[in-house]
Amino acid sequence: MPISAGQPAPDFTLPTDTGELLTLSSLRGQWVVLYAYPKDDTSGCTTEACEFRDLFPKFKKGKAIILGISPDPVKSHVKFKAKYELPFTLVADEEKVALQAYDIWKEKSMYGRKYMGVERTTFVIDPEGRIAKVFEKVKPAGHAEEVMAVIG
């Protein structure tokens, strides 16, 4: 069932690019941008990550935490983060626990082949831990600006 604005954000505890565990509910009191992307170091995902990187100072000023989440392992996140100098946290969801809780682990199709993958989606979570806005089927270019407009 799709997650929509007004609902509590499903909590999770998952490893990050530092190897430490992060629990989403521990970030209450701050805005959180949880953006889900299919795969580290692919063209669209790199565009999206670099735009969040470039706007990071504005997000920080708005007291927002950015979390990128994908099914890639921690090791992959470490390389991706270093390669593009990403200043925010990447969350590894290899078991697709959070991706399924947020209903964005979906059947996709490319060149007639069906497979399971991440539907590129961004959730803006307010300081009370509720979903403030959902961006579905995100186009990477220009997306960070759209998200920034919600947080102000």
TrEMBL record:
Give the EC number(s) listed in the UniProt record.
1.11.1.24
* Entry keyword annotation includes Iron: no
Any one GO CC term of the record: cytoplasm
- This protein's source sits in the domain of life called Bacteria
**Where is each Thioredoxin domain found?**
3-152
Class of this enzyme:
oxidoreductase
Residues annotated as catalytic: C45 (cysteine sulfenic acid (-soh) intermediate)
Quaternary structure annotation from Swiss-Prot or TrEMBL: Monomer.
Q: Which InterPro entries match?
A: AhpC/TSA, Peroxiredoxin_AhpC-typ, Peroxiredoxin_BCP/PrxQ, Thioredoxin-like_sf, Thioredoxin_domain
Q: Which family does it belong to?
A: Belongs to the peroxiredoxin family. BCP/PrxQ subfamily.
What reaction does this enzyme carry out catalytically? a hydroperoxide + [thioredoxin]-dithiol = an alcohol + [thioredoxin]-disulfide + H2O
Q: What is this protein called?
A: thioredoxin-dependent peroxiredoxin
